[in-house]
């Protein structure tokens, strides 16, 4: 254990890797031609609320890239969607596109060699961010290593971003895995992404470069005794092709659903239909991970977002899969609510969340928020629904979206949850847009998500001389009023335990 603690250190500095010139890219030229017709500084945006659209947008971006593809994710899970995307990345690299993949180190747990096989391609480079430097070989030594260096290892790169030719980008809540595109057989996630073109895409490309060139970004080959060979890459490529052909031949519903939009020339149509507005990419500085204790304000994404939150006049809508407001957040929201601002919050219910311990950090604040006039909605566990906010599929769904709508004029979309982990410990990225059209669209989707068939409305009512909370829902046209919070015993125990042992600041 002492050896593990002593040997976890800084990575050696990496050589600088800038954005590549992209003036020859047809995609860039097309975007620049449209940008030239818009007011100076405007960027183009399209909300990707449909999982099929979100997947198709990524595939189309990769297929149209000619110069560079920058891919940055917190989680990458194996599955149909991931193998299809990896196959397209390999095709892009074959065309001469430079592909850089930056993954949080937790994604590579025990899979360094398998992931590094892709980097056997001369045009693909793979880095891991904030890696554990010793004891990577198995679960036990990894756990010990992270425990002994907890001040650094509990901080993760939570960013989700893909950029093509520094001209087109997707940022939002989705990681990579079948559950994020609603084709998993177990639990799927309802999410939001944003397609961005023009100046904001260039800013997001700059954010990627800042992370890629940081000292915590380490080539994955550094952790291998010997690098994978091109023969192993060829074998992996054949396995992907065979897997996708088998799925196609079987015509499985999930394959048809995932690949449905790929036959249409969507990207060109989407570029013509973008909403153009002032916008800015916001991200945490990667130095946030190395901070001793609470990071300085200048490193935080939320410092950039705060002025827009403070300026709210009439209404604020918050969507956060994991919502832990803390005392400071309750004070901020309550103050605005008492001043007449309508505040709606949509988060997961105890029965729907995939992380019950986080619910334990949220639940103690509900009564204070309700007392102040804040409206609380908790997404129900949804079996086999089909709605415009994309709670669909063969399995159950859990909320994974992250968004803020201010006065139906400004909207922030990205990877940021409204909890201490996102604000203080993990790094995040997102886009703030001044667009009544886009803000209204997100607001409308939120209102649909808060309907009683999809969500519980939590209320505070008089009861025996005091007050208690109730959960209001609707099934088959009949209102239901629950006096006990919905959720199983194991979930209740996890939520209770996180409160008892004081995990709030880690959630």
UniProtKB/TrEMBL annotation:
Q: Where is the PLD phosphodiesterase domain?
A: 153-180, 395-422
Spans traversing the lipid bilayer = none
Q: List the SUPFAM superfamilies.
A: Phospholipase D/nuclease
Q: Extract the GO molecular function terms from the UniProt entry.
A: phosphatidyltransferase activity
Please name the PROSITE patterns in this protein's record: PLD (PS50035)
Query: What processes does the entry annotate via GO biological process terms?
Result: cardiolipin biosynthetic process
What is the recorded name of this protein? Phospholipase D family protein
Q: Can you name the source organism? A: Pseudomonas saudiphocaensis
């Amino acid at each position: 254990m002492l050896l593990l603690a002593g040997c976890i250190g800084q990575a050696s500095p990496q050589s600088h890797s800038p954005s590549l010139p992209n003036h020859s890219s047809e995609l860039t030229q097309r975007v620049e031609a449209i940008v030239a017709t818009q007011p100076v500084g405007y960027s183009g945006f399209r909300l990707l609320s449909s999982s099929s659209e979100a997947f198709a947008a990524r595939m189309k971006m990769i297929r149209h890239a000619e110069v560079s593809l920058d891919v940055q994710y917190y989680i990458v899970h194996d599955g149909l969607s991931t193998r299809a995307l990896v196959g397209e990345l390999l095709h892009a690299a074959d065309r001469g596109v430079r592909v850089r993949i930056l993954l949080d180190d937790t994604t590579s747990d025990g899979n360094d060699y398998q992931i590094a096989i892709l980097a056997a391609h001369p045009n693909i480079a793979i880095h891991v961010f904030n890696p554990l430097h010793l004891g990577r070989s198995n679960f036990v030594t990894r756990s010990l290593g992270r425990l002994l260096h907890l001040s650094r290892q509990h901080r993760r790169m939570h960013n989700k971003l893909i950029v093509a030719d520094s001209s087109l980008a997707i940022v939002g809540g989705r990681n990579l895995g079948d559950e994020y595109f609603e084709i998993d057989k177990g639990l799927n996630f309802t999410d939001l992404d944003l397609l961005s073109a023009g100046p904001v895409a260039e800013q997001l490309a700059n954010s990627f470069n800042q992370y890629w060139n940081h000292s915590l970004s380490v080539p994955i080959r550094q952790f291998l005794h010997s690098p994978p060979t091109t023969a192993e890459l060829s074998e992996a490529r054949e396995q992907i092709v065979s897997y996708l052909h088998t799925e196609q031949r079987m015509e499985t519903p999930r394959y048809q659903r995932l690949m449905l939009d790929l036959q249409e020339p969507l990207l060109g149509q989407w570029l013509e239909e973008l909403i153009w507005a002032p916008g800015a990419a916001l991200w945490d500085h990667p130095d946030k991970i190395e901070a001793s204790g609470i990071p300085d304000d200048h490193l935080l994404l939320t410092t950039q977002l705060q002025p827009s939150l403070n300026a709210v006049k009439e209404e604020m809508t918050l969507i956060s899969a994991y919502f832990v407001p803390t005392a400071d957040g309750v004070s901020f929201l309550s103050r605005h609510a008492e001043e007449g601002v309508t505040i709606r919050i949509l988060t997961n219910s105890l029965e729907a969340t995939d992380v019950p311990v986080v619910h334990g950090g949220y639940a103690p604040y509900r009564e204070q928020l309700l007392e102040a006039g804040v409206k609380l909605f908790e997404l129900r566990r949804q079996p086999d629904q089909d709605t415009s906010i994309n709670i669909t599929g063969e399995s159950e769904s859990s909320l994974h979206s992250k968004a803020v709508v201010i006065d139906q004029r400004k909207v922030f979309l990205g990877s940021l949850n409204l909890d201490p982990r996102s604000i203080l410990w993990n790094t995040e990225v997102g886009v703030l847009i001044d667009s009544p059209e886009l803000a209204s669209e997100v607001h409308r989707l939120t209102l649909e998500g808060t309907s009683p068939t999809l969500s519980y409305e939590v209320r505070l009512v008089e009861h025996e001389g005091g007050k208690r909370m109730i959960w209001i829902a609707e099934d088959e046209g009949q209102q239901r009023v629950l006096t006990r919070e919905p959720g199983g015993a194991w979930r209740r125990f996890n939520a209770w335990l996180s409160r008892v042992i004081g995990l709030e600041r880690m959630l």
